[in-house]
């Protein structure tokens, strides 16, 4: 697609640098005709629709916008065309198969043992310098894993292979713009950790796993999630960071004596303990949060079992409490 744009660009604006300024009428045309496509584009990009539909619609609108700009041959139009082209090129990185593939790749690393080379490179570190090295030296590993996957769309794999350097830039160069591709990939990462953590949480609550089997893993995931969120400009829709800190603390305090009741009541404290916690956090001096959380956890969990009077969690309660 981008090649196509550049090609059109060269055809239509062979001497673009020397173009004259647009006339009032041309500016008028730019505003009334071309900018309608941009408005629609920004709307579609934000709107929650299926990714295939999104990609089809943005492609069509990008083409229409491009045709509109190239039909008006003057300086401001070229500038708008360039800006539009950059935005449209980014669409391929954030919509559809490519982000799905990247998410799938991250997931494979968490469910280790999939391929040894995934563990040899530190793909998930938040130190972007180290991560860049991992993706640079581990290029063959990344492409091999993606290429062999059955779940990753072949067209997306092809695109990633051809645009590998650009993808690595997006994964490893921080951007201050929350709409940027980097932020988008970062959010995929945080959401994934959030997901993994909550899966373990539910296994514990429902008795499918014991603390001794998942405790350390959960502490590690939990800390990773806190770090991930600290680098993120998006609010994750998942677990609240305050709760997360308390759950990790509880696992550290009680070790294997930690029961699902404690975990359950930390996320759903009674009004009384919640008020105590909020007052304590409000009154705590800067940096005392940890002490406050510790009091809260000990009050709720006592000897590691919950003291809030929760019996077996009721299915309805569990799913409607939030
Ligand atoms: C813009 O729209 C007007 C009115 O619909 C039309 O006359 C004009 O040709 C259009 N210009 C371009 C460049 O499409
Ligand atoms: C990231 O890792 C590099 C290389 O190991 C190191 O020099 C750098 O200090 C680290 N950066 C941060 C922010 O920790
Ligand atoms: C991907 O797989 C196809 C067939 O399975 C193979 O022909 C191709 O060389 C592979 N590409 C890479 C980069 O491994
Ligand atoms: C867990 O309980 C046992 C037996 O009550 C106790 O000896 C041990 O110290 C407890 N461990 C922790 C981390 O509290
Ligand atoms: C928690 O409570 C259960 C049931 O009351 C009991 O069997 C278990 O020993 C208690 N665990 C701790 C660490 O006190």
From TrEMBL:
Keywords: Signal. The keyword Signal applies. The lineage of its organism: Eukaryota, Metazoa, Ecdysozoa, Nematoda, Chromadorea. Residues 22-178 form the T20D4.11-like domain. The keyword Magnesium does not apply. Residues 1-18 form the signal peptide. InterPro entries: T20D4.11-like_dom. This is T20D4.11-like domain-containing protein.
